[in-house]
Design a protein that fits this description.
Structural class: mainly alpha
Strand content: under 5%
Number of strands: 2
Radius of gyration: 16 Å
CATH superfamily: dinb family like domain
């Protein structure tokens, strides 16, 4: 199996599970404050999809993120891609439907981009964590599969603790 096919197959599987968690997410579940120092689902959701936005747009394509071009900071006040400030994430009262619009735009762009990549693109060196240069394949796999799945599990657990059903399967 070619690397591009593997990446697309893994991303599709993760996306299916992701959709099962967020499709029926309510305002109450999204903003439920877990005990301790965990972020509510809404903060985790914006963080996870913001990473996809950054890798697909800035890192892979060298263009502004959808967050930036769509003025999402105004539409989703109190939250931002990247690491969430715990107090801001707990205080945010963002409409889940608006966040899902951002999610949909980012995932549509990810799908569009994945339809254009080549093996040579996957080998291209791009900035990774800590400033190290890594193959683009590493960053795409991290954003679309590994990081996404990590936070999907977190959101599933939070949703279950908030009275909802996490994974649908």
């Amino acid at each position: 199996m070619e690397a591009i096919t593997l990446l697309k197959t893994q991303a599709t599987g993760v996306r299916r599970d992701w959709a099962s968690i967020v499709s029926d997410l309510t305002q109450e579940q999204a903003h439920w404050r877990p005990p301790g120092v965990a972020n509510p689902i809404i903060g985790v959701l914006v963080h996870a999809i913001g990473f996809v936005d950054t890798i697909i747009n800035k890192t892979a394509q060298g263009k502004p993120t959808i967050w930036e071009t769509g003025n999402w900071a105004e539409k989703i006040p109190g939250l931002a891609p990247g690491r969430q400030d715990l107090e801001k994430a707990r205080a945010a009262k963002t409409d889940v439907a608006v966040v899902k619009q951002y999610v949909d735009q980012v995932l549509a762009e990810a799908d569009r981009y994945l339809g254009t990549i080549t093996s040579a693109d996957l080998d291209r060196q791009v900035p990774g964590f800590g400033g190290n240069m890594v193959p683009l394949a590493n960053q795409l796999s991290s954003a679309l599969v590994v990081h996404f799945a990590e936070h999907m599990g977190e959101m599933s657990g939070l949703k279950g603790s908030a009275g909802g059903k996490g994974y649908a399967g």
